[in-house]
Amino acid sequence: MSTTLPPTKGLEGVVAATSSICYIDGDRGILAYRGYDIHDLADFSTFEETCYLLWYGKLPSRDELKKFRTRLAGERKLDPAIIKWMKEIPKTATPMEVLRTMVSALSFYDPDEASNEHDANLRKAFRLTSQIAMIVAYWDRIRKGKSIVQPDTSLSHAGNFLLLLNGEKPTDTAEKALDVALVLHADHELNASTFAARVTAATLADIHSAITSALGALKGPLHGGANEAVMRMLFAIDKARQDPVEHVHNLLAQKKKISGFGHRVYHTEDPRATHLRQMSRDLGYSSGNPKWFDMSHQIEEYMKREKKLNANVDFYSASTYTAMAIDVDLFTPVFAVSRIGGCAAHVIEQLDDNRLIRPRADYIGPSYPQHYTPLDQR
Question: Which member of 263, 275, 297, 346 is catalytic?
Fold first, then answer.
């Protein structure tokens, strides 16, 4: 007795919304924001310009981009209560747990909290984008017993994040690498976290609730944790002084999955992996420590040859972030630092033309009607 049309497991291939934000062609390996190819954006754009594109639907003029950068930088501030609360959180809390909790708490101090109007949501998008980056960096310093660093409004979003994280201005190479990584991760259509955000927004909950839902979904290892698993594998190989290819061969023989390969959408190379591979190589060799890239490249070639699987966005982002001295458990929060750009765009789009998202389930339980037996007769 079917409730509706037969479903596909995991909603694979199901169209759940119309959107003008992100275009993906998995067969041709195309990813585009508002029609602009990700390769062009990675080569020529910046994270700030990409956020403008995602939120306003067009590329900015020079003056518009200058004002956008100034406005975004001007929101690099947290209420003292948020910082005080972070200092009281158990140091054993994971960065994603802290980020999820603090983003929810940010609504207490947002002057537009009660409004779901378009312009109010845009203002909140500016705040959240700056604040999420601050929370990730500040928590890492707090848990390590370091003093927090004051933001520098003259730096780019990527440069300021690395400053807040490491306590010193980043090299041009590191700043550019992170900026490109933020562009590459900014949106990816109806991935799990973005869909969660849209479902929450569709109830007319506020944008903080929607982004908190997104972060809850992003915390799961099947969505946001793959690059962590990749780096932990590389660490294990290095510690055991094993041959990378032999290690992966043994894992496959045990029927274990190799993180960072294959993708639900792409049937060719993930276009984001193309840039992250080069970034991993450049950062590794410029820092004089290319081993993580070299190991990754050997594994990638083996997986392509033996399993016909391509590296996805997570595979080379692992060695890229490690080359920037970013701790493994910060990989997913850094992903959130970027993905807030696209998530905010989707929440705004959802609320601009809202309808409650309420799908049906294909019922596979006991047939109807079941005979009810009184308690004393069972």
Answer: 263
